[in-house]
Amino acid sequence: MQGLMMDMPLTLTMIMRHGERSHAARQIVSVTADSPLHRYTYADCFRRARQLANALGALGASPDARVGTLAWNDYRHMELYYAISCSGRVCHTINPRLFDAQIEYIINHAEDEFVFVDLAFVGKLEAIAAQCPGVRGYVVMTDAAHMPATSLPNVHCYETLLAGQRDDFEWPALDERTASGLCYTSGTTGNPKGVLYNHRSAVMMAYTAALPDAVNLSANDGVLPIVPMFHVNAWGLPFAAVLVGAKLVFPGPRLSAPEVLADLITGEGVTVSAGVPTVCLPLLDYAAQTGRSLAPLSRFVIGGSACPLSMIEAFRDRHGVKVLHAWGMTEMSPLGTVNADTPETAALGGAARSEQLLSQGRALPGVELKITDEDNRELPWDGQQVGALKVRGLWVCRDYYRLDGQGGAHEADGWFVTGDICSIDPNGFMRITDRAKDVIKSGGEWISSIDLENAAMGHPAVAEAAVIGVPHPKWQERPLLVVVKKSGVAVVPADLISWLGERVAKWWLPDDVVFVDELPHTATGKLSKLELRKRLADYRLPDASA
Ligand code: ADP
Q1: Is 329 in the pocket of ligand 1 (CB under 6 A)?
Q2: Catalytic residue among 331, 453, 464, 477, which?
Q3: pLDDT at 488
Q4: What tens digit of pLDDT does each residue of 468-506 get?
Q5: pTM of the model
Q6: Can 446 be counted among the known catalytic residues?
Q7: For all residues of the chain together, what is the average pLDDT?
Q8: What fold, for 440-535?
């Protein structure tokens, strides 16, 4: 027997309508290339989204066109998110930090009809436009006064385009499985792979992200997504914020300027922020150097790579900020797990508490996890055994865009193979030990590079640390610690080894320490171990014959 409830599709249009009607006056504040601080309301945003939807029609964009964006986090990008997706088209956010050849590849692979571009990236597109013949036009996200001279073909100015459009638009009734967004993984190996979100997955992600034991969002929050809108939809925050009516604060091109972030936090009442660990370091350092407070910030979602304990403690002890250590992937919209306290974890003290803070947390409702051994047998959740992490759920991709099942990441029964290695404890708390491709295999045992990095990052002289496996004749591989020192602090390898000696098993201790000026990062701000291994390809351990 079927229930007798209305069948209302889960669409971003529904979230947008709710935001516009119930939180019309809520503010969206942005730093942009053409304005130091732009301020308007949800009502303004969604009125302009309707003008933009009319503009897309006037440009001749197909009803299901892929429309590219190459832009920082700001109000125009927000308008694009809603106008493109809610008009039935696909918002394809492009990571401007990718190499030109990768951007060219994904624009062509996605078959983008139009590309909206921030002032800062016009030159990037000029360099590749000739190789993107399918793009019918470009729109520079600025006003007439700031419109650059450009060789881009069929180019428009965003504000001029909008000004010519009516602000009424009949949003189409969409099936909830209609594609809404497209985001390519950064493709550290091979070409980037496209993950095609739909309205249903984006709405379910937004509802779940807002839950108390996820990001705990409400209309009383000010949300500052530092994670870029081209990185998995800024982790869904532009949708989750509107769902609850939270104020949105966008850093625009200034996301790496800690003083701008601190100004936005204190000046605009930011209570929640989100980003990868590498963006948090400069913010913490800046606050320490200047003695500035980060009030009223209360939560910081940190994910994308393992958050070091030292960072979690610095936020907690110096600023009263709770780090929500989260794990996810582009393929998971992106949230899979969040480390939120339970009465039991909150009661822990000492080393047990520190260990617990390093966990990436429990699965969000709507996501299922399992870990398996090398023979694909499921492993128990005992907090000890470590295996390959597989997931399925409401906002997990079931295939890659236009790869026809050749993505190679799904098992026959549909589980998605994350490529991560972890343990899960009896209460469901997960702890990532490595990416499968970064695991260090020493004498048949695995050494966790993440745990070693974490311990090294706690040393006062260490600005950033990476651990990779290097070949060893007897042990197959041994760990090598690569460190960027904090400026003006003296440290020698033996200091670091003895520091680690108090924190990890003896046989895990790195065989050597190499100091470098900087570590390579991916387009999403994570350590690039692939690149680091390349740079150290000629490195030999001092005692490789031991
Ligand atoms: P890309 O690396 O291409 O940007 P994603 O952003 O989708 O792709 O990265 C997902 C991966 O990032 C995960 O599979 C995992 O290895 C890593 N990751 C994400 N969050 C965490 C975390 N909190 N701790 C450790 N690793 C993480």
Answers
A1: yes
A2: 331
A3: 87
A4: 999 999 999 999 999 999 988 889 999 999 999 999 999
A5: 0.94
A6: yes
A7: 95
A8: GMP Synthetase; Chain A, domain 3 (3.30.300)
